[in-house]
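Re-running NAD(P)H-binding protein to confirm reproducibility after the cluster update. Everything else is unchanged from the original entry.
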Amino acid sequence: MAVLKSALILGASGLVGRQLLRELLLDDRYESVTCLVRRPLGQHLYHDPNNKLHPVVVDFDALDDYQGYFGVDHIYCCIGTTLKRAGSLKAFRKVDFEYVHVAAQLARAQRAGGFVWISSAGANAQSGNYYLKVKGELENAIMRMPQLPNAAAVRPGVLIGERPNDRRPREKAAALLLQWLRPLLIGRLKKYRAVHPYQVALEMIRHQEF
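Result of re-run:
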């Protein structure tokens, strides 16, 4: 008989995080799914027929205080924002680099079985684009971290979907354009295709070891 797994999601209320939560709650391989969130999860976001879900409201600025939750089989980090929403380069880096990096450190300290996070297509620490630069620096920092088994970054292109309380007209327009250009995005350009959140969620799950 297969051993059931425990999972932790950070950022379960986001576009990918919501889809990932739905997938894990219906995945027979998991017996428990803990979510660290800024505010209570709305019941409309999930269907939990087997009572697996354990939401915990936390302060991400004090993530070390919740390190006990990181001793699970699989950790999924869906934390992320945009430069516009963050309001400054410093605030953006705090969310997209510092929060995720601390989560990886806690995963290592608590000997989590696997750590998967969302990066971005084109992530490169040498990029002139600040967003892609930070994503690349984070990849380097986590992948060079010793004693963190099964760490993996998922690199989606522009996401297709409506974000609650977060209008992103430029991103939506880009997604529509990339969908139209999809037949032309082949070979090395394939990574820039617009993707659905459920595709990213399934890719994250695929990277975990069962």
